[in-house]
Amino acid sequence: MLPPTPIRRLLLVPLVVLIAGALAALTPPVAMLTAAYSLIRRRADGERRSRLLRVIFFGLAWSAGEIAALTVFLCLWIASGFGGRLDTEPYQARQYSVMRRFLDQIFRAAHRACGLRVTVTGPHGTGVSAGGDRPLIVLSRHAGPGDSLLLIHHLLSVCERRPRVVMKATLQLDPSVDILANRLPNAFLHKQPKVGVPAAHHRTEQIRRLAAGLSGRGALVIFPEGGNWTPLRWRRGIDHLRRRGRRDLAERAAAMPNVLPPHASGALTAIAACPAADVIFVAHTGLDRLVSVRDVWRGLLGDMEVRAKWWRVPAGGVPRSASHDTQVSWLYDWWQRIDAWITEENAAPRDSGPADACPAVGASSIAVQGADAKDG
């Protein structure tokens, strides 16, 4: 069960400061010892120690970003009359700016420590990138560590959007996420929200409110799969559909090994609540191979390349007036397209990086390719 807000703020914020201080104090001696050991061995052990340096560097950068963000949040709280004006437009804009800068710092560190490169192909024209004025509902697959942060970073820094995110309540254990996400229009999904209120009803109501309030620069981000892809979750998702009597959907899900079966209720609720919104589907690959801690550790041996594909469905092309079963089938059609794209990308050769990659907004190396693509 998630601790109450006062306890989280009183315990976790000082804990982050202590961890950052410990990392800062330990980094110089550990770095010197690791470098010396690597020079002596110059073998697999040396490689492992270089990975340790990457982890320490990234952890230090993340902790520094957390402390900087928490300091700014405190200053904004005081300047807003001790929180009295935090929900006004000027302070909302400042907090989105803090989010963008924090993610810039994190992905700059990821680029330096892990060689992170991101290539995005898809709709970056009217209605999506800077200059568009239509609200967006973004439906993305969920796989690998940090994929949600990559997506939000891209929406903020490249598309110049204000993302509203549907996320798990446990993410509030991160102090920066806890403070910032609760000041901005987001939704935290609890397994047991309130006594006497069904969890499913509570979730759909939260999503409906977020979608109904979308402005022209807003983007509602939903991960219909409900969690990161793992083989176990994939099998459980198929079994769940069979137990519900949806053998037709179970068969379709079994034919899509790269993605989890999407939960349609949240996505369709958002689509119905904002008739003016275009729908963006997001596929990506690269992080999905990092399922376990061992996978992440092995991945630190080389650079990390993430490839993403965005598709845009204009508001007029979304089957909002169709039957529920037709809408669910439409969502599965798109998930099938995402699965097929992942299969194709995983079979393609990986080079050392896109030739036209550029360090966008001072963060990871990002290449944006393609024009406004409605159907891929």
Automatic annotation (TrEMBL):
Keywords: Membrane, Transmembrane, Transmembrane helix. Residues 136-268 form the Phospholipid/glycerol acyltransferase domain. The keyword Membrane applies. GO terms for molecular function: acyltransferase activity. It comes from the Bacteria. The chain crosses the membrane at residues 12-40, 52-79. The keyword Transmembrane helix applies. This is Phospholipid/glycerol acyltransferase domain-containing protein. The lineage of its organism: Bacteria, Bacillati, Actinomycetota, Actinomycetes, Streptosporangiales.
